Amino acid sequence: MEPLFVTECKFDNKSYYEMVPILRKKPSRNFLIFTPVIILIMIFFLVLWGMSGFRDFSWLIPLPAGCLYFVCFFMEPWLRARSALKAGTKFFKETGFERISFYKDSFQVQVYSNDQLTFTATYSYANIISITITSSLYCLSLKLDRTYIIPVMKKSFVFGNQFDFYNFIKDKSIFNNATVKQL
Which terminus of the chain has a smaller tally of CB atoms within 10 A, N or C? Predict the structure, then answer.
């Protein structure tokens, strides 16, 4: 079966950091679990401070930890993008690239390192839960055992073009009740 679209790309810093707003909207599980806990601890110490008549400095105990937590909360997407960039750089080395072939009913991701096929996976369009479009990427969010984001560079098509691809992927995603967002 012939693919309808084929893209070959090697990602750089700009590509990974362009995904930060998408990662910010999908925080990691740890932050989702610990956010209410940190808020409750901060409220507990503020109530203790109020019960003491606002005279002591017990409210200072959780303040640095809470501030550090919220700074980390906003820095976490940058750290995830940076770790993905490091892993990709280590995996692809200097001669690696990623090829994504889009067929009528599925798409296939192939990773090459040193001109050797090292990884291949085929996914159904039914796994796509959302598509986010940035200035240079189409980011496909897949729901498998957890949520994965597969970036597709707009200017990396070797078969087909980005304008036809936009209409194609939009039709496939709407058919599967996925959302299409533009950043």
Answer: N
Taking domain 5-11+95-182, whether its CATH number is 1.10.10 is answered by no
What the block records as the tokens of 179 is: 């959302």
Euclidean distance between CA atoms 12 and 85, whole angstroms: 7
Residues written for the chain = 183
Residues 138-151 pLDDT 10s: 888 888 777 777 88
Three-state SS at 130:
strand
SS3 call for 161: coil
Domain range list for the chain: 5-11+95-182, 23-92
Report the alpha-carbon distance of residue 103 to residue 6 in Å, rounded. Answer: 9
CA 34 to chain centre: 20
pTM, 2 dp? 0.67
**Other C-beta atoms lying within 10 Å of the C-beta of residue 167:** 9
